[in-house]
Design brief:
globular, 17 helices, alpha/beta, 4-stranded parallel sheet, 445 residues, 6-stranded mixed sheet
């Protein structure tokens, strides 16, 4: 069976465009485009046959199907030829039973989907492999594309730079000056991208990159480009697959530009339409109180949306006041009986540190999601007997400065309740033994 996909406007479904066209919005109404699939063709396999195929491909050495994204190629980008696929075997990240942290907060059945266990350390790899592969095929077919460009708060730029370098396509990165971690800044630099540090915030960078990519020879890689959503939608599919095809009660994720919630919902809806699941989980979006436009809209039942001036937050990747994918995200939240919660800087930092005490190493954005989980539990919205999956979007090692400052009690707006600074002692056996004895006494009493 030949599978097909195309772009459609999220407002007016009458117009179709090729995924190999340089286009990001509907030419008639300006609405964002979305990749659609020929669902009837995909029904040539039963739900059980799709499950068996996906299970067989997981970690396969048969390129490109060992990738967590390309193992589901028929559902993602079936028109991309294998020779044009740029993959680092992204996806298939582990799902961790966080039972110790769950027991501490009164939620025994808690899981974390560790998307940071990926090549560049974040879930952004999942979408970038699709986008860069499509661009590689466009170039192979004669499209005059000179470079791929993005605005970023860190993780998107790292993913674009790595996949562009692997494909031999130049990358142009716009970053807000002094608003990304050192680890995030060095990634695109090391991969040879042209990095521009602008004296603005992410929203300012986003405005400029949209102007820049009006030139069709510079291709836009931000999440308003729905090719990335196709790769990122595999997160939800993987969660269900790793839970032995059982649907959790809730999935919680940190939310900024809102492409991630759009992608999560899209993958799960596709699973339901093709019969792999018979019901949907609820979704909770977590935002920093310093950058909370979706939360404010949710509180007024989405009757109006007002962008905000995002204030500085430790969760820098979601310091976004005017999210591009707002309309998509609201549609998903309504379909999934979703909720939106916000957390303070103090809550996100301490939630991350508390989880770290149980063996994790959480990025601040995961701290936002965990902080929202604790709030939703306290409010009784999430029940203590429910199964909850929190999506950890990036590896904590990308934010070690945040960790250091937390344990040195140097973070503004944060009281470090779980600080664990090193003990500075003389180089003597007795001093070490005395310190250990005191620690044991403290632990005992």
């Amino acid at each position: 069976m030949a599978y097909n996909c195309w772009y459609e406007c999220i407002r007016d479904r009458s117009e179709r465009y090729s995924i190999f066209d340089v286009i990001y919005r509907c030419e008639d109404c300006g609405g964002l485009l979305e990749v659609e699939h020929d669902i009837e063709a995909l029904k040539d396999r039963s739900a059980e046959e799709w499950k068996q195929l996906f299970d067989q491909r997981t970690h396969s050495k048969n390129f490109p199907f060992g990738s967590g994204v390309w193992g589901k190629k028929e559902w993602i980008a079936p028109l991309v030829r294998d020779e044009n696929i740029v993959s680092m075997y992204e996806g298939n990240s582990n799902i961790y039973n966080a039972h110790r942290f769950g027991e501490q907060i009164g939620l025994p059945d808690l899981w974390l989907k560790l998307c940071g266990n990926s090549h560049t350390g974040s879930f952004k790899d999942l979408g970038m492999t699709v986008l860069v592969s499509v661009v590689k095929q466009m170039i192979a077919e004669g499209k005059p594309i000179r470079a791929i460009a993005c605005a970023s708060t860190g993780d998107t730029s790292a993913a674009l730079a790595a996949y562009a370098a692997a494909s031999g396509i130049p990358a142009v990165i716009l970053l807000p000056r002094a608003k990304v971690s050192t680890a995030q800044l060095i990634q695109p630099i090391a991969n040879g991208a042209t990095v521009m540090s602008l004296d603005t915030d992410f929203d300012g960078c986003m405005r400029i990159v949209q102007e820049l990519t009006e030139d069709p020879s510079i291709y836009l890689a931000n999440s308003m480009n729905s090719l990335r959503i196709e790769g990122q939608k595999t997160v939800g599919i993987e969660i269900i697959q790793q839970l032995e095809w059982e649907v959790p009660d809730w999935i919680i994720l940190p939310s900024g530009n809102l492409g991630n919630v759009s992608a999560l919902g899209k993958g799960l809806l596709m699973m339901k339409e093709l019969g792999l699941i018979d019901h949907l989980p609820r979704i909770a979006c977590a935002q920093s109180a310093n950058a909370n436009p979706l939360y404010l809209s949710f509180k007024n039942d989405y009757k109006e949306f007002q962008p905000v001036q995002a204030r500085k937050t430790l969760a820098s990747a979601i310091q976004i006041g005017n999210p591009v994918s707002y309309d998509r995200a609201v549609r998903i939240l309504k379909a999934f009986d979703g909720v939106v919660e916000q957390v303070t800087e103090d809550e996100l930092a301490n939630a991350a540190a508390r989880a770290d005490r149980t063996g994790l190493y959480c990025c601040p954005h995961t701290g936002v999601a965990l902080g929202a989980l604790i709030r939703l539990l306290d409010q009784g919205i999430i029940k203590k007997n429910e199964r909850v999956v929190v999506i950890s979007t990036a590896h904590g090692l990308k934010f070690s400065e945040f960790k250091v400052q937390y344990h040195q009690q140097q973070l503004q707006e944060v009281t470090s309740r779980y600080a664990n600074p090193p003990l500075e002692l003389p180089a003597s056996y007795d001093a070490v033994v005395n310190a250990i004895d005191k620690l044991h006494l403290a632990a005992r009493f």
